Amino acid sequence: MRQENYLYFALAGNNDADKDMAMFPASTFRGAVSMSSTTVEFFFAPQDGTGTTANGVLMTHADIASNTTDGSSPYGNDVHYTVMEKFAQLKSGNRANTTNFTVIKDLNDNLPTNEGPISSTGLTEVTALAITIH
Amino acid sequence: MENYLYFRKNRPISASHTQDGTQQAMTAAFLVADIGAVAGNDNINEIAAISITSADGGGTGHASVLFTPTTITPTLAYSGSALAIATGTVHWVEPSTQAYANGILTIDAHGVAGGYTLDDDDIITAYWKTGLETAFMYPVSALKGIVATSDTVTVVHFASIVGSATDDTVTFTHAALGFEKVCKMINDACNGYPKDGRMISVYDGHDGIVTSLNNNPAAITLMEYAPQGGAAGMAT
User: Fold this and answer.
1) Across the interface, do A74 and B138 touch by the CB < 8 Å criterion?
2) ipTM of the complex
3) Residue A50: inside a domain, yes or no?
4) Is B88 helix (H, G, I), strand (E, B) or coil?
5) What is the per-residue pLDDT across B129-150, written as a single tens digit (0 to 9) for each?
6) Checking CA distances to A2, which of A55, B67, B173, B182 falls within 20 to 30 Å?
C-alpha cells in the first residue's frame, strides 16, 4: 500500500459553507505560480474527472516593505518562496507510522485542541485562502 | 519523495528611462539588459512603484501624486496636496492606474487622478515586485522533457498546470552549445536529496542578478515562462 500525504486547506468560518475546506492527495499537486506580490496559487488535478481543468488554492501572504534609501527590493522579497518551500516540505513530510494528515493552512478559529495534526493551523505566513474546485 | 523545481524571472530592483520628448508614453522601452525580455513584459502588477524626477520643473502633477516620500511599497499613501514641481524634485504616481506594455510605461496626464504630465528629460524610474507568473515551481513528476531549439535556446516542458493538452514551457537563452549543461542542471535538481523531497532553486533572476543551480554552467542570460491558460485562465 502506498503511503501518501493528504493536504488540508480550510478558510475561516467553521466549515459551514461551500468550499470552506478542501483536501487533496499530495500526488494531485501540479505546481504553483505567483499571482501578485501577496498571492501564490497552488494547483491540483480537478475532481470533475476531465483532468483538463484545475483545482486551485490561492494563498495570500504578507507583502514586504521596501524603501529607496537602503536599496532593498520588493522583487527580491522571498515571502512567496518561503510559502512554496514550506509547502514542499509539508507535502514531502509523510513518513511511516504517521497519519499523513497534513494541514497546509487552517484558518478556522474553532480548532480542536491537543489532537495532533487536526489541531495544526499550518503555514504561519499564509493569512487568507481562496479555494476553487472543478 | 520528489523534488520541486523553482524558477524566478529576470527582473531588476529598478530601471530608469530619461524622456526624449513630451509624450506620456516612454519614448523608449526599458533596456532588455535591465528587465529581461521586453516583448510580453506587460504586467503592471509587477510594478511596485513609479517615480518621476523633474528635469527642470516643467512637468505637471495631479494633486493626488505623492511628493518625495522615502517609502515606495507596499505602504504608499498618496497625498491630496497639490504639487509644486521644482527642478530635480521626485514625485510618485500610483502604478496600478498606469499602463504598461512591452517594457513601456504610459503615464496618465495630470488631468486624471494620479496622473503626471511628463516633460522632456524627466526621468521615469520603476521598481519591480513579485507579480503575475514571475515565480513558479513544478513537482519533478510534471517534467515532460527538455528540447534544444537552437544552439543558444533550450526549452523545458512541464505538464500544464491547468490541465491543458499543451505543455507549459520554460525557455532558457544561454551560451552556445549549452544544452547539455542545462540538461545536467535540471537532472541535478530533480535527483538531489533523493530521500527528502525539497524545493530546489533552478533559476533565479531577481534584482538583475542571474543565479542558477551549479553556478550557472550554461551561462543562461534569460528565462521566459509560458504557462498554458496563464493570467486570467488560472483556476481562480
Assistant:
1) no
2) 0.90
3) yes
4) coil
5) 888 899 999 999 999 999 999 9
6) A55
